[in-house]
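Async update (no meeting this week)

Hi team, since we skipped the sync, here's where things stand on the single-chain job. The sequence we agreed to prioritize is pasted below, unchanged from the tracker. I ran it this morning and attached the output directly underneath so nobody has to dig for it. Comments welcome in thread, and please keep replies under the output.
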Amino acid sequence: ADVRVLAPYEMRHPSDYVVKPSDLLAVRDADVVVYAGYEAMAPRLVEAADGTRARLVKIDTRNDPVTVAASLAVLGEVFGTPATATAYAARVAGFFAAWREELGRAGLAGAPVVAHTFQRPVAEALGLAVAGEFGPAPLEAARIVALSKLAPRFLIDTWHNEVGRPLIETLKG
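Output:
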């Protein structure tokens, strides 16, 4: 299969990828277009696919094992590879289970954290206690103070939309 990725994962914020005319032509010729729906380019992709053979497949991109398994199941159905999708979902679940065990051995199971809204599902899947949430908008002074008072063990941010840095300065350790 010929796969074309429009917004590369290496981008700091791939959902802001600026679609090019050649991308829109590729969408018109595609059999399947996979997207999340929050990308800035999503409306243009949907418009480019309208009236073509392209099948639009919208998936949930939260990174917890349950959501990943559901998105993989959708893709497995679309591409006729349900066994492969199930196998990958099992690998993701195993990865999270091993990570939870590692956190438990380190005495961090149930540790209070403040998490970027996009990372909350990951933190919860790891058995961490999400005491507070922030983002995706930049933190305002009052929110920094409120989250600091929660005395989290960790701050979990997202590389693609890092907004928690000002909070780090107010946390001990």
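Quick observations from my side:
The beta strands are 32-35, 55-58, 112-116, 129-134, 154-156.
The CA atoms of residues 36 and 151 lie 34 Å apart.
Reply here if anything looks off.
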